[in-house]
Amino acid sequence: MKKILFLLLGFLMLQTANAQLQPQLENPDAEPNCKMIRNNSFLNREPNGKNTPDYQIVFSDGFVTEYLEGGKYYVRTKVTFTSPCEYTSTVVEVTKPHFSIKVGDTFRTTILATSTANGLIKIKIQMNGTTNFIILEQIKKS
């Protein structure tokens, strides 16, 4: 019985630590506004609140293009929505030499939360057995 309690306590501590590592949204919507991701451009918001330098992601016409190093390189994926808040992506083009992502790689993305007022989207990306949580910040249209 002591072992079970110890294992349960360890599991709960890991879950709490994992939840604290996940980025959080300011002013989240009551329900995710999943349409917000379609046909928009975003920056990657890092846990420190700053945006990843020289990185942009554009959702347009069933494709996602991630621009790296200020647009010098890009990764393009074909997107298929499996539900309003989930999509799978298949990499169709990579221009950065020796990059870890290759043509044909697939991954699954889930929109977990949005903050329409702040132009933020929290997503979960699953690829090659790893899971990452990312916050995208919508680029304001002028």
What does this structure look like?
The protein has one helix at residues 2-21, and strands at 41-45, 56-60, 63-68, 73-83, 86-94, 106-115, 120-127, 130-138. It has 142 residues and is mainly beta. The chain has a single domain, classed as Lipocalin, CATH 2.40.128. An eight-stranded antiparallel β-barrel has the order 1-2-3-4-5-6-7-8. The longest helix is centred in the first third of the chain and has 20 residues, at 2-21. It starts with a helix and ends with a strand.
Quick structural gist:
The protein is mainly beta and 142 residues long. It is 14% helix and 44% strand. The radius of gyration is 17 Å and the shape is globular.
Could you give the topology of this structure?
Layout: H1 2-21, E1 41-45, E2 56-60, E3 63-68, E4 73-83, E5 86-94, E6 106-115, E7 120-127, E8 130-138
Antiparallel strand pairs: 1-2, 1-8, 2-3, 3-4, 4-5, 5-6, 6-7, 7-8
Biggest sheet strand line-up: 1-2-3-4-5-6-7-8
The CA-CA distance between the termini, in Å, is: 62 Å
- Mass-distribution shape: globular
Helix content: 10-25%
β-sheet strand percentage = 35-45%
- Specify the oligomeric state: single chain
Low-confidence stretches: 1-20
Question: How do the helices and strands follow one another from N- to C-terminus?
Answer: HEEEEEEEE
Average pLDDT rating: 86
Please give the CATH class: Mainly Beta
Structural category is: mainly beta
CATH architecture: Beta Barrel
Main beta sheet: strand number and arrangement?
8 strands, antiparallel, barrel
Tally of DSSP helical segments: 1
Number of domains: 1
Q: How many strands in all? A: 8
Round the Cα radius of gyration to an integer and report it: 17 Å
CATH 4th-level superfamily: Calycin beta-barrel core domain
CATH topology: Lipocalin
